Q: What sequence folds into this?
């Protein structure tokens, strides 16, 4: 059999670049309403600006970012008492996932800020100055830019956007997650009292006023394992006690601890204990017999 090569899935792909600017604006500076056939990243490095667009109108503060959609009408203005520094990058990317950054500011982490700084540095090595003149229609490239620097801009932009989208997903999950750690302890207590019965995620969501995504994410974040794994651990722990101390057979024990079938019980038992229920009890009896 030949090796099977796999193609990369391009979740985010930046296909073209229009400009990479670092502006040190004066106070009261403003742009006219503009639109163009590419996206525009606007990041405030210091100070603050007012952004006006079809998706968002409001203040963009230091370390905050917004990404205007393709062909979206937009402008910016600076306050009367501040002279902000602003990064503006025009680029082409077809992914609609970036649209989610057009309607409200996003605060960047230090790691994200670092990548944005690296993009600016690569941009300086690829493009000729000036870097701070608005509305440059053709930002020219150097003839002798370092090997791969042009591609590095693309790679780093894609890395930056992937980081943004990942952090947005986690933040949204945490924001929507109505289950605090205290509630997680309540859920554990509920499971410990009811694990022998039929427990499902829909029931837990109803009881604790949440959704499956928030429930599962919050539980694993708090305890390091999934809810199903936690329930199965409790059931197998009780089953081991019954195997050692009762006269019930395996089918009866499976039902007693909450499993719907002896087959499923045996499979879970073996996955957690590395031996079947029968092998487990034989091992225990063998150990006990050796002490007699």
A:
């Amino acid at each position: 059999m030949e090796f099977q090569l796999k193609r990369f899935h391009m979740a985010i792909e930046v296909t073209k670049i229009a400009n990479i600017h670092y502006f040190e604006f004066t106070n009261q500076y403003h742009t006219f309403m503009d639109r163009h056939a590419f996206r525009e990243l606007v990041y405030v490095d210091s100070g603050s600006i007012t952004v006006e667009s079809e998706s968002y109108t409001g203040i963009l503060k230091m370390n905050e970012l917004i990404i205007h959609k393709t062909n979206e009408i937009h402008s910016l203005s600076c306050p009367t008492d501040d002279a902000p520094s602003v990064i503006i990058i025009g680029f082409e990317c077809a992914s609609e996932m970036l649209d989610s950054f057009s309607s409200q500011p996003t605060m960047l982490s230090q790691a994200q800020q670092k990548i944005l700084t690296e993009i600016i540095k690569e941009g300086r090595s690829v493009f000729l100055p000036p870097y701070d003149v608005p509305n440059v229609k053709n930002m020219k490239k150097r003839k002798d830019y370092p090997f791969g620097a042009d591609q590095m801009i693309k790679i780093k932009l894609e890395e930056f956007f992937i980081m943004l989208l990942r952090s947005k997903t986690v933040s949204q999950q945490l924001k929507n997650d109505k289950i605090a750690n205290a509630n997680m302890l309540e859920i554990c207590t509920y499971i410990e009292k009811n694990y022998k019965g039929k427990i499902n995620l829909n029931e837990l969501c109803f009881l604790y006023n949440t959704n499956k995504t928030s429930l599962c994410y919050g539980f694993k974040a708090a305890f390091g394992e999934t809810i199903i794994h936690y329930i199965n651990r409790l059931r197998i722990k009780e089953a081991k006690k019954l195997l050692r101390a009762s006269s019930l057979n395996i089918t009866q024990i499976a039902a007693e601890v909450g499993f719907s079938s002896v087959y499923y019980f045996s499979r879970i038992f073996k996955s957690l204990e590395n031996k079947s229920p029968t092998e487990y009890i034989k091992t225990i009896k063998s150990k006990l017999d050796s002490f007699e």
Summary: DSSP finds nine helices and eight strands in the chain. The chain has a mean pLDDT of 88.
